[in-house]
Automatic annotation (TrEMBL):
The gene is LOC107962351. It comes from the Eukaryota. InterPro entries: Amidohydro_3 (IPR013108), Metal-dep_hydrolase_composite (IPR011059), Metal_Hydrolase (IPR032466), YtcJ-like (IPR033932). This is Protein LONG AFTER FAR-RED 3 isoform X2. PANTHER family: IMIDAZOLONEPROPIONASE, PROTEIN LONG AFTER FAR-RED 3.
Amino acid sequence: MNLSIVNLASIAVFLSVFLFPSFNSTYWLKWRASLIPSTKFGADLIVKNGVIFTSDPSFPFANSMAIRDGRILRIGNYSSLQMARVQLEGVNRKDEVVRRVKEAVLNAKRGSWILGGGWNNDLWGGELPMASWIDEVTPDNPVWLTRMGGHMGLANSVALKLAGVTNLTKDPNGGKIIQTADGEPTGLLIDAAMELILSWIPEASVDERREAMLRASSFALTRGVTTVVDVGRYFPGSSVEHSWQDFSDVYQWADSSGKMKIRVCLFFPMETWSRLHGVIHRAGRALSNWIYLGGVKAFADGSLGSNSALFHEPYFDDPHNYGLQVLEFESLFNMTIASDMSGLQVAIHAIGDKANDLILDMYESVALKNGKRDRRFRIEHAQHLAPGTADRFGQQGIVASVQPDHLLDDADAAIRKLGVDRAQKGSYLFRSLLSSNALLALGSDWPVTSTYPLHAIRTAMNRIPPGWDTAWIPSERLSLNDALIAHTISAARACFLENEIGSLSTGKLADFVILSSDSWDEFATGGSTSVNATYVGGIQAYP
């Protein structure tokens, strides 16, 4: 059946904009290919600037490949070929982790950093990795491998020595150094403690960051995404300057040179609230039709996967651990008061039930102190809630910024870490939040999870984790209409952009997608649907 663009646009009416709670500018995208004979990196040939399908499930796409003596020397992002990177997504065996690290070392210079990540210890039974796993194969290279989610990382002994991390090193505020029974660091660092290693890793150049942003934007367009919320390269313990550097060096550069491809709403570290207030006072919130200044972000806790999400009760598999409060409460409260008083929107990361309750209590106190206004406080993730907490989101007018695809990785882990009863009653309460009249905004948290909104919509509707035959907490499933609204107009409203984007309405920016479905019924019943075209401002941006 052949429908005109006008008719197909009606199918895409709610798919005009998808907003991401996190947008990381380290991913690679589709652009024209070139072949470069080269001796750089010891390669006979470098293939770059292309979309390379690898057939490797842990690293399905790359943009560059180095070849030597008829064999693949390295594959990945061209700008990172100078630095060995280890792809550990989907790896389900300890020996495979070691093998991939060893392979990276063979292709790296002595003393250079071996970086990578994406590992998920749940896939190999839950045992946490240690530096001793990889020390033998990395005697001369520092190594840093982040866990999926980005709240935990593994350093080898060379990296620990370089950073001066010993059995005498104290846990930083908002972080934890995992130790053996004898008090020696295992190599695992959580949240703010990761900065002990990260501060020693060479920074990406301005040109690399610009190129990464442009490629990431192009990739987003292939998935039907026209607007993202970028909360920057910030986490507890890291430099607050990273977000501001990307704002000036990358986004403002792209905007002034006419290179922006998608719209962005930027959030900055809460510690820098006064700087953001000054920029908004001088230039306003909308710097152009491409860049909007959203507000400030902070963290209340860590993540479930790293056992650092903050709960009222201890972890079922770690009975002395309640999680981690990554910022001292009084400091967080004072910064929130000041940010809100200056008119900034506040977003705070909270995953565990205690973290969510603490932030809801704090938001209530701040609103009482600063007076009534349309502030749209946000809680990022809101993954695990105590009984009655979902209702508070609606009562207080809080935005629940949730990422459906996280539940695909968390279902089995939540049951193991929280026990069946707690996991079943309080995890990913989409329907409960919506029923409480909370503003439910759905997104992806890319690159932690997939950047495909159509997939996230199905997840919100079905809630069937990998390997399961039935839905996890089926009463919390959303309808197609609710999932679409939460990804579009509600997501736009969650960052004060509902008058510009989020729906196809008279006077709004003409951002929309055309899907492959021939009818609404085909799309609604779960048929195979993909993005055929993406339009930004009425101009076709993909393909």
